[in-house]
Design a protein that fits this description.
Rossmann fold, Beta-Lactamase, single chain, disordered C terminus, 16 helices, 2 domains, disordered N terminus, 424 residues, globular, 36% helix
């Protein structure tokens, strides 16, 4: 990103697009261009991961996702709604006349100071557009130690990355920061052994360019899918392979076989936690002995929102209702202020659990039919601090709220995890 682009972002005012949305100067030929630029700039400045343009009968409803939560922003008037969609498609080099099929594109950084992926989808009221903001410029997480994980978890990850084979599986639901963690692991390897290990990747898409990594991007339109690409990649004499995501049994099989035959594999997988990931891989047909032999460790992670400084300590009265049944003695509740745009939260905190299959009592739970609850209990009984337990601790220390824990983990009875840890 150029210095001039940086300055333009720093000077951008989040109120600018509010003023434009309230304006009725639709005859101005530059109105749509200015509005789109202001919306994208404002969303980037607010730290949004996505900006939604949802067509309705009254225009385009605007929402952005900040800290994992959708927040309403405003409405683009119906008079210019179609032109706003066209402008976004032009920036992403999409076919403006094609309105009945989904399209995907990317806004080049020479056209805009942010790296943005554009996705369109037809609806009954017109095309819905989602702008996803990709990481660009300087990165805050250059090393695993920068992720904010506990020291023992960092130590275990570094030990896994020092191996010459095996798989490091990073799991969590969508939007839990798995790719960020994976890139931090790759940078860690590059820092510790520069130019000594051949590192290659198969991604869909490549989100961050890394020097000294041979990164490849899926192109299904020409038959270059994740499975065929990975099958060929293992013949490129790699020491380390990064697979953007395991999505199907075939990809899982190739990745795990590579981990067994002399490559260190780093990959991500959609699952609510580490134990559920093992269960789902077994359900996909991966043999239990392969899971036990190939897996260095499984890192399960989630992101919870941090309370803004405006949060207040909960009063003594009506405590059960305000702490939503969590086993905590003190907690704070969100209030809302201009600094957090009345949300009550600012930023997010990573919580992570490490499933260690080197512990025999834990490994013994890996069978053809893995019970995720039993595996989780066994791991917790032998030292693993679960995601839920860590989230409750964040409530106790005033970093997040009971409502945020319920939002992330749902209304669930996981008090047994707390009992296991309290006995140790």
């Amino acid at each position: 990103m150029s210095d001039s682009h940086n300055r333009s972002l720093q000077k951008a005012d989040l109120k600018t697009f509010d003023d434009l949305l309230a304006s009725s100067d639709f005859e101005d030929p530059k109105y749509v261009t200015r509005l789109v630029e202001s919306l994208l700039t404002g969303a980037g400045q607010a730290g949004a991961s996505d900006l939604h343009f949802q067509p309705t009968g009254q225009g385009l409803q605007l929402k952005w996702r900040v800290d994992g939560v959708l927040q309403p922003v405003g409405v683009v008037p119906a008079q210019v709604a179609d032109n706003v969609v066209v402008r976004l498609k032009v920036l992403a080099k999409l076919l403006t006349y094609q309105t009945h099929l989904p399209q995907e594109g990317r806004i080049a950084q020479e056209d805009f100071p942010l790296d943005i992926r554009i996705s369109t989808f037809p609806t009954v009221f017109g095309e819905k557009v989602v702008a996803r903001f990709l990481p660009t410029g300087a990165v805050s997480y250059d090393r695993v130690g920068d992720l904010g994980l506990p020291a023992e978890t960092v130590e275990a990850i570094l030990a896994a990355l020092s191996q010459t084979s095996g798989i490091l599986l990073i799991v969590g639901p969508a939007g839990s920061g798995k790719t960020t963690t994976a890139y931090a692991c790759l940078r860690e390897i590059l820092s510790s052994s520069p130019e000594q290990r051949n590192i290659a990747s198969m991604e869909d898409p490549v989100e961050v360019i890394l020097d000294q990594v041979a990164q490849s991007e899926v192109a299904e339109s020409v038959g270059f899918d994740l499975t065929s690409g990975l099958r060929s990649l293992v013949r490129q004499d790699p020491d380390v392979i990064f697979v953007g995501e395991i999505r199907d049994p075939e990809t899982a099989s190739i990745a795990l076989q590579a981990a067994l035959t002399g490559q260190l594999v780093i990959t991500t997988f959609h699952a609510p936690d580490a134990s559920a990931a093992m269960s789902r891989l077994a359900d996909m047909g991966v043999p239990a002995y392969v899971l036990r032999s190939a897996t260095n460790c499984v890192l399960g992670q989630q992101l919870v929102r941090r309370l803004c400084d405006c949060a207040k300590l909960c009063p003594e009265t009506d405590s059960h209702q305000s702490n939503l049944g969590l086993r905590v003695e003190t907690w704070r509740l969100p209030q809302g202020c201009p600094e957090c745009r009345q949300s009550g939260y600012r930023g997010r905190q990573l919580v992570a659990e490490l499933l260690d299959l080197k512990v025999s009592e834990v490994a013994s739970q890996i069978s053809s039919e893995i019970d995720a609850a039993q595996l989780r209990s066994a791991a917790a009984a032998h030292g693993m601090k679960t995601l839920y337990h860590q989230a409750v601790e964040l409530v106790q220390t005033g970093k997040t709220s009971p409502a945020e824990v319920v939002r992330v983990f749902g209304i669930t009875d996981r008090q047994d995890e707390l009992k296991i840890r309290s006995k140790k």
